[in-house]
Amino acid sequence: MPLRLPPLALAAPLLALLPACSPRVLSADGWNFRVGDTQGAVRLVSRQEFGVCSAKLVGCTVPVGHGCLVMLDLDYFLKGTPRQRTLLLAHEVGHCLDASVLEYGHGGIGAQGAVYGEYYRPAVEGFAESYARAYVARCGDNLAPLGYGAGPECEVPDPRRVTAEPPAR
Ligand SMILES: [Zn+2]
How far apart are CA 111 and CA 108, in angstroms? Predict the structure, then answer.
């Protein structure tokens, strides 16, 4: 699908608040999404352009006001399987909603995200991954609700109702 989309009105003022953002991030291909009252801009960039996030990661979300800038590693996103793409974007949107809806409450998840791997033990990562898993359970690999590609309507999970799977005993 063509990725060069006209930026919506949101993108310019949102990105203007990020002086650390490189011009290559500002002009990168991407799209916008809206979940409830939360708006975000997604940009596909080389992870070396993330700036505020480690280039070892494949996604980086920067909250701005009630919205977010989500940067995804272009190679990982475009070459990944549909499931990898979905988990990546939904995980980053989970970070965005944690900020905009839960005020970094992380859904009260604590260390339960460790069921998904050690990386997800901190509550901030545990919540984002729990959101991603809840997204897949509800919408599968359909990313149209997050502004990417075409697909049927799907009501994305409410971040206030997302919990981690119970920890293994
Ligand atoms: Zn994360």
Answer: 9
From CA 18, how far away is CA 39, in angstroms rounded? 16
Burial-class residue 99 by CB neighbours within 10 Å (0-12, 13-18, 19+).
buried
Q: How much distance in Å is there from the Cα of 91 to the middle of ligand 1?
A: 6
Cα 23 to averaged position of ligand 1 atoms, centre (Å):
24
72 CA to centre of ligand 1 in angstroms: 11
Residue 58 CA to ligand 1 centre (angstroms): 9
Q: What is the whole-number distance in angstroms between the Cα of residue 74 and the centre of ligand 1?
A: 17
Q: Residue 60 in contact with residue 71, Cβ under 8 Å?
A: yes
Distance 125 CA to ligand 1 centre (A): 5
Which one, of 67, 32, 46, 47, lies nearest residue 145 by Cα?
A: 32
Which DSSP string do the residues of 19-54 spell out, in sequence order? TTS-HHHHTS-EEEEEETTEEEEEEEE-GGG-SSS-
Q: What is the pLDDT of residues 85-129, one digit of tens each?
A: 999 999 999 999 999 999 999 999 999 999 999 999 999 999 999
Low-confidence ranges of the chain (pLDDT < 70): 1-23, 165-169
Helix (H) or strand (E) holding 68: strand 67-73
